[in-house]
Design goal:
Elements: H1 25-28, E1 38-40, H2 44-56, H3 61-71, H4 90-106, H5 109-129, H6 140-148, H7 161-179, H8 182-199, H9 204-210, H10 218-229, H11 232-240, H12 244-251, H13 262-279, H14 282-298, H15 330-347, H16 350-364, H17 398-406, E2 415-418, E3 421-424, E4 430-434, E5 439-445, E6 452-459, E7 465-473, E8 482-485, E9 488-489, H18 491-495, E10 500-508, E11 513-517, E12 522-527, E13 530-538, E14 541-546, E15 579-580, H19 583-591, E16 603-605, E17 617-621, E18 630-631, E19 634-637, H20 639-662, E20 663-667, H21 672-677, E21 681-690, E22 693-709, E23 716-723, E24 731-736, E25 739-745, E26 755-761, H22 764-767, E27 772-779, E28 784-788, E29 790-795
Parallel strand pairs: 3-7, 15-19
Antiparallel strand pairs: 1-4, 2-3, 4-5, 5-6, 6-11, 7-10, 8-9, 8-11, 12-13, 13-14, 13-19, 14-17, 14-18, 16-17, 20-29, 21-22, 22-27, 22-28, 23-26, 23-29, 24-25, 24-27
Helix pairs in contact: 3-5, 4-5, 4-7, 4-17, 7-8, 10-11, 10-13, 12-14, 13-14, 13-15, 14-15, 15-16
Length: about 800
């Protein structure tokens, strides 16, 4: 595949020494304006930025720093946060990045003060450790010594330790990149040297074994260090963190992402893009571009997010996205936007900006509560479900960390530049100070509520000057798109088609104006492989509807381990609003709607549903819908089709709703996060995939076990999901808190090619007065325990 590199993007970016200029941001990302040069004007993004800044000031910095001080053997000044214990320190790195970004974007002195305080405390940790290390990984020094000595298997005893320390690497880099802080740069490079010392003695096989454990964007970090210093040891280490299981597949254009943990992969690919950018390696660029294409264009939902229960679905199982509570994860989209920026920087393709816009407006903007500013982890795509929000100093999830950053860097991609060309990528009210060209651009728009945007050119000193202004033509615009310069239509805009940029190449005068018309229509987007499920789009904007506020359990999360999951009851699909008619008829209906009086982008729906009780629902941008159950995807079918669908699915849905209502706790077996959440331990255990479902077994006297929460309920039973036609020798015991509750032999038990649920009642004595129990599957000698596909703890 031939990719067009913007002139000077690769090679010329290399620095011959450490950059000293305070405007460090554009030294790593050559087309990016410093955040302080892009001022957000009144609109939803400015509101989000200001609200986020207020929320960030509520966090206790000493609690964020506690894990680092503890691991460095220094007295802590406050107690660490209890939530997500085992991943201690990861949010501290994000917070350092957020302080740097928000100071750069707004000039807020408190952000600078907090950033510098964090750096001083982290410097004390680095000095105390004595080897360049800074980290909050519990008992991490033992692990890093094991790895350095070749015992890479030790990494599986910890919770994603490289992922964890990647956040402090990134925080230090960002403190330098966004603010020019030289102490942060010095600490960053010392930490990079520590990372090299840990891994340089490992063989390629040992590296690959270690990289099977989530490691964030460590390849990106070392590519950045190479660009900063020009020292090839950092580039060598970046490539060693490539993880060839993924890289080789992407380079060969092979999609191997079915049922794979999504956010483990995306940061790796950011690293591929950065390696390509700093050394001109086209294989890395091609691998990154292929990954972006399959995730952004084939594996993402209408809001621009991807995954469910943190995993990419199988390509033939997109229905699961509208069945489960746990929809797209905010971290995934944070990282996809970063990858998108990097690929755009290298190629200039407008399609990247189209995706960026969709994901920014629909997912990222929606993950902040518009009043209290809490962050969202999972955005459920299930009809009539909801999402929950964090609160300061509680619920320290990964998506809290990325959420801290998201709303501080909205100005990063509105405008970019290359040589004498200025790209307008997003239609967001803002003012750019292009210091290099002595130019200001003021963008006035109410997009997406209005279908226009106007740009006013200001020239410092009033002297005219030449440059190219490239205005994006989105793929979603309908007939009537045009660009005018001082009232005259730019000829190229009449002929443009698809995602592209309209270039205005002229000598500009102070006060020149450019107007862009952005006509939009309603359209339906079908869920991948599921013809009956649609999302409603207006231009790039996902439209949704509130459908009630019942049973919003845990709407604002506490410190509970699963507080990030919207645990309230599921609504049967048969009780959600269904759009009745062919897709063409429904689209025509939607395009015939008029906004509600005195409002924009709010439309009252009536006469289109399966039940008149839904008449009066209001269709509006999804990002504006909060504190309620909502519709993102809708069933859409003819009246006859809906009758047949209801008859076909009613009994199965009734069974699933009843099972969900009984479920006290559940483990999606062999999936990374659920197993970490449930303190999985194992010996002689293997995993695999059958019919799109993950399984785990234990062999030859081995075992696997989980800790499940009882929520104080009883009586309880255990439900295990098996395959109904197992072969071989599969005799095993099921043990609860040391007591055998069942002895199983599942070979020849059902003799059918389907999954089978088996329920085991638990004696009252095993659960009475307990908040949790340990459940173990233990195989006999020369036998196999399982395969187990799902495990549930049920109440009656």
């Amino acid at each position: 595949m031939k990719l067009n590199l913007i002139a000077g993007c690769v090679g010329l970016m290399m620095l011959n020494g450490i950059v000293q200029d305070i405007q460090a941001q554009d030294r790593l990302y050559k087309n990016t304006f410093p955040l302080g040069d892009v001022e957000l004007l009144d609109g939803p993004f400015k509101h989000a930025q200001e609200l986020n800044l207020k929320v960030l000031m509520e966090y206790d910095v000493d609690r964020l720093l506690a894990p680092f001080l503890k691991e460095a053997g220094l007295p802590v000044k406050a107690e660490p946060f209890p939530n997500w214990a085992g991943l201690d320190g990861h949010v501290g790195g994000h917070y350092l990045s957020a302080m740097a970004m928000n100071y750069a974007a707004t000039g807020n002195e408190e952000c600078k003060k907090r950033m510098e305080y964090m750096l001083s405390e982290l410097k004390r940790c680095q000095d105390s450790n004595g080897d360049g290390y800074i980290g909050g990984v519990p008992n991490g020094k033992v692990l890093w010594t094991d790895i350095k000595n070749g015992k890479v298997e030790s990494i599986w005893k910890y919770w994603a330790p490289w992922y964890n320390v990647h956040k402090i690497f990134a925080g230090l880099r960002d403190a330098w990149m966004y603010t020019g802080n030289q102490e942060a740069l010095d600490m960053f490079l010392k930490l990079c040297d520590w990372g090299i010392s840990v891994t340089e003695g490992l063989s390629d096989d040992q590296m690959e074994q270690m990289l099977g454990n989530e490691f964030g964007g460590m390849d990106e970090i070392f590519a950045d260090a190479y660009q900063i210093t020009g020292n090839k040891k950092y580039l060598t280490t970046a490539k060693r963190f490539s993880h060839h299981w993924l890289f080789d597949s992407m380079a060969a254009h092979k999609d191997n992402l079915d049922n794979i943990h999504a956010n483990t992969q995306i940061p790796k690919v950011i690293g591929y893009q950065r390696i390509a950018e700093v050394c001109g390696n086209h294989q890395y660029l091609d691998a990154a571009d292929f990954f972006w294409d399959i995730v952004a264009c084939k594996r993402s939902l209408a809001l621009g997010g991807n995954s469910r229960r943190e995993y990419f679905s199988a390509m033939d199982d997109f229905r699961s996205h509208v069945e489960v509570r746990e929809g797209p994860e905010s971290c995934n989209t944070y990282n996809m936007l970063k990858l998108t920026e990097g690929l755009f920087r290298m190629t200039g393709k407008a399609a990247y900006a189209d995706f960026y816009e969709r994901a920014l407006y629909n997912h990222i903007l929606s993950t902040q509560h518009p009043e209290h500013g809490g962050y969202v982890y999972f955005t459920s795509a299930r009809p009539a479900h909801y999402r929950v929000y964090s609160k300061p100093n509680s619920a320290m999830w990964c998506c809290v960390g990325t959420g801290m950053e998201n709303h501080g860097k909205y100005g990063e991609f509105i405008y970019t530049h290359a040589s004498d060309s200025l790209f307008v990528n997003l239609f967001i009210p803002s003012r750019l100070n292009w210091e290099q060209e002595k130019v200001t651009i003021t963008q006035e728009t109410q997009f997406p509520d209005a279908e226009t945007s106007q740009f006013t050119v200001g020239l410092k000193g009033g002297k005219s000057r030449h440059f190219k202004l490239l205005v994006r033509r989105p793929a979603w615009v309908t007939e009537g798109y045009e660009v005018k310069c001082n009232g005259k239509v730019v000829e190229a805009s009449k002929k443009a088609d698809g995602s592209s940029y309209i270039c205005i190449d002229r000598k500009w005068k102070d006060g020149d104006k450019v107007e862009v018309s952005l006509p939009m229509k309603m359209r339906l987007e079908t869920l991948q492989g599921e013809n009956d499920f649609v999302a409603i789009m207006r231009g790039p904007i996902l439209m949704g509807a509130s459908v009630g506020t019942d049973n919003l359990d845990g709407l604002i999360a506490d410190d509970g381990r699963w507080g990030h999951i919207a645990s309230g009851k599921l609504v049967p699909l048969s009780e959600t609003p269904v759009l009745i008619g062919s897709k063409e008829e429904v689209t025509d209906y939607l395009n015939g709607l008029k906004p509600m009086e005195g409002q924009t982008l709010r439309y009252k729906l009536s006469g289109i549903f399966n039940d008149s009780k839904f008449d009066g629902l209001v269709l509006e941008p999804f990002s504006r819908i909060h504190d309620c159950r909502y519709m993102m995807y809708w069933l859409c079918m003819t009246a006859d089709g809906y009758a047949a669908y209801t008859k076909r699915t009613q009994e199965e849905e009734k069974r699933l709703m009843a099972l969900d209502a009984r479920t006290v706790d559940a483990v999606s077996v062999a999936e990374q996060q659920p197993e970490v959440d449930h303190k999985m331990a194992k010996e002689n255990s293997e995993t695999g995939l059958l019919k799109g479902k993950k399984w785990r077994d234990a062999r030859d006297g081995g075992y696997f076990k989980y800790t499940l929460s009882t929520n104080g309920k009883q009586p309880l039973s255990l439900m295990a999901t098996y395959w109904g036609n197992e072969q071989g020798n599969r005799k095993f015991e099921i043990v609860v808190d040391g007591t055998v509750i069942a002895t199983e032999n599942i070979v020849g038990k059902w003799n059918k090619e389907e999954f089978v649920d088996v329920e085991y009642k638990l004696p009252e004595s095993l659960v009475k007065g307990k908040s949790q129990i340990e459940v173990m599957f233990k195989s006999e000698k020369n036998s196999v325990a399982g395969r187990i596909f799902m495990l549930r703890l049920l109440t009656e």
